[in-house]
Design brief:
4-stranded antiparallel β-sheet, mainly beta, 7-stranded antiparallel β-sheet, 189 residues, binds flavin mononucleotide, globular
Length: 189
């Protein structure tokens, strides 16, 4: 393989997508789309998440110190893409939201149609020049009951829930097929 040096980019490094659920100061749910999400170890499994710039999700997390992270699947992609391209300060944004419920442990909105949802409590905010990294304790994991069925293998379960992968400003299905550029699937909302 002959490598060449290029400017910083994460192209060709697929990421998982999550919809972060928060409540605003009036108790209204908001969802934003995020991919800068990974895991840390500190005696137990935790989560690290980076939010850039100012957004409603960030303001809500600062106030409440809790949020949910809901795995984005093919079924959720149009709503997810819409959430990633619509400012939460836009009062109409959540008129398009699918069914939600409350977290079982934390006061966070959960997307009922997402097969995996984390209930997260921020332990530490790491302020950067523009962005901010949040180190979180996983207070609860909500999984579709089907995912806990030991008789079914993980390849079959992953094919059934079909998580989205994203890179190169595009969305890809679990089977690798192209599902459009950022800003496209949300147009149908
Ligand atoms: C595919 C995709 C991934 C995104 N990932 C992030 C991310 O990891 N961090 C971030 O700060 N913004 C990310 N965004 C932008 C936010 O989703 C966007 O600012 C949105 O308006 C946030 O929701 P809110 O305004 O309701 O807080 C992403 C957008 C898209 C389309």
């Amino acid at each position: 393989m002959n490598k060449i040096s290029i400017a910083p980019t994460n192209d060709y490094c697929p990421q998982t997508l999550f919809l972060y659920g928060t409540f605003d100061e009036n108790g209204k749910a908001d969802f934003g789309l995020f991919c800068w999400f990974s895991y840390v170890w500190d005696g137990e499994l935790g989560v690290m998440a980076c939010i850039g710039g100012n957004k409603l999700t960030k303001e809500n997390i600062h106030r409440a110190k809790v949020f949910s992270a809901n795995l984005v699947t093919e079924a959720l992609l149009p709503f997810a893409d819409y959430c990633g391209n619509t400012d939460g300060h836009h009062s109409e944004k959540m008129k398009a939201a699918p069914e939600t419920e409350k977290g079982r442990v934390l006061d966070v909105p959960i997307l009922t149609a997402s097969p995996v949802s984390f209930e997260l409590e921020v332990k530490e905010f790491v302020q950067l020049k523009d962005g901010e990294v949040m180190l979180c304790r996983i207070r609860n994991v909500l999984q579709d009951e089907m995912l806990t069925d030991k008789a079914v293998g993980s390849p079959e379960k992953l094919a059934a829930i079909a998580p989205i992968r994203t890179t190169c400003n595009r969305y890809f299905a679990w089977n690798g097929s192209d599902l459009g550029g950022w800003g496209e699937p949300g147009k149908q909302i």
